[in-house]
Structures are given as C-alpha cells and as structure tokens.
Amino acid sequence: MALSRVQINAKSEAKRGIKVKSFKLHESTIAHIEQISQQTGISQSRLITQAIEMLGKHYQVTAKSVTPLP
C-alpha cells in the first residue's frame, strides 16, 4: 500500500530529527521575527535556530548540558 503525503513527510522529518514545536508569542515578537527573516532572507525556523545557538554560546550552554536560566 502506498504511503500518503502526510506519512511520507512524517517519516522524512523523523529521519532528519525534525519535530513540530508551537509557541504562543506576543504579536510584536512575531512581527520582529517576520521582519528579520524577510530582511535577511533567512527562513523563520532557521532564524530561531541561529538565535538559540547564539544564546547557548553566550551562556556557554551545550545541548547536552542545558540548565535553566536565572
């Protein structure tokens, strides 16, 4: 039996380690993300990923040693 498009996408995302995550953000924050994304040509998901990576480096936090911020 052939897989549906949803099943194919789910399998592909699982293989690549991709998960869906949703946040409730203030409208101004969403607008800021959209504006930066549009001006830089970076996708919104990549923009968020880079921001988190930069924040982790700033606080010297690695993915394996995540600790809550004060």
Lay out the secondary structure.
Elements: H1 5-16, H2 27-40, H3 44-58
Q: What labels would you give this structure?
A:
70 residues, mainly alpha, 3 helices, 59% helix, extended
Helix content: 55-70%
Strand content: under 5%
Profile the largest sheet.
none
Give the H and E element order. HHH
Gyration radius, in Å = 16 Å
Secondary-structure-based class equals mainly alpha
Quick summary:
With 70 residues, this protein is mainly α.
Report on the structure:
This protein is an all-alpha fold and 70 residues long. The protein has a domain at 25-59. 59% of the residues lie in helices and 0% in strands. The chain is built from three helices and no strands. The protein has helices at 5-16, 27-40, 44-58. The longest helix is centred in the C-terminal third of the chain and has 15 residues, at 44-58. The chain is extended, with a radius of gyration of 16 Å. It starts with a helix and ends in a 12-residue tail after the last helix. The mean pLDDT is 88.
